[in-house]
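Archive transcription. Copying these from loose printouts into the bound notebook so they stop getting lost. Printout 1 of 2:
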Amino acid sequence: TGDLSSRFARIVGPGGRVVPSDINAAMLGNGRSRLHDEGVCANVDFVLADAEQLPFRSGSFDLVSVAFGLRNMTHKDRALAEMCRVLRPGGRLLVLEFSKVPAALQKPYDWYSFNILPRLGQWIAGDSQSYRYLAESIRMHPDQQELKAMMKVAGFGHVDVHNLSAGVVALHVGVKC
């Protein structure tokens, strides 16, 4: 959707470069249109790409980010290794993703996710099925510690985890050493 790309483009300014990529051409097109409407396309290069086989030279980027997309990747280990490969030493990977709540919140969170969320999706977007899939995909995604371990195996020397909203969402920050 271009949310992060828009912010990154403003942060790096005209001297920097932002490269949003997605395997879904329609999603990439939506992001391109949004950034164009915001007037922040001058330093942005949109690339149709599979995160498991990134078309960039090794050591090309200072920062790589993925927001709410890693859980949809078939081979998360390959994608993480590719993200590490394209980073320069000292570069950072930011993974913002739905995650696991503490055990005390699990039952109410599950009830909300499988009963209320699909109804909201039907009411707001006319689509309950996508919101059921969202709840199911979150449950299949690695928890905070498992994802941290996967990032270390992929080549990140240091990984921090920051829980947001009681762990509903977590930000994993990996540093390539």
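Printout 2 of 2:
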Amino acid sequence: SFQILHCVFFPDPCFELPIFGVDLVISVNKFSAAIVDLSPVGKHLPDALISQMKSLQLPKFNEPGKLPDWGVIFSPYVCFVRPVDSLEEKLFLKLIDQYLSLLLSFLVKVRADEINSLDTMDRLNYQKRYCSNQKLNDKTRGILTKFFGSSWAYEYINKILFDC
């Protein structure tokens, strides 16, 4: 009766690439939450990616979500909603595809920095910040604790989902 798809792509910090993240939460065969983002690994997304993000046609969802305080790690283009019907579910899945397509088109344009460069170290620190903030998600911890126990939830969050 409860399903979660949690997917985060952490890029090699040598590249100025955003963190792709998507969560789909399904309860009793209906979406109860859906979020997708290309999160910055610096103070903001690269300018070339921002112009592409602005060109996206975001659907109007009936029930947008409110980001928690720790959600400052997300970009201004994060989409967090509760799809209310099958049409909104399909629109959200298409939106995921658009975010992935943008990321893929951006991949071919990015050049690597040296592994010990300040830019690489900054991006690594932003990735660590992303993980640290995600660990503050009480809803995730609560759901995992309910189904698997607090010890398992702690280990899973800290050593699998967001191992800094």
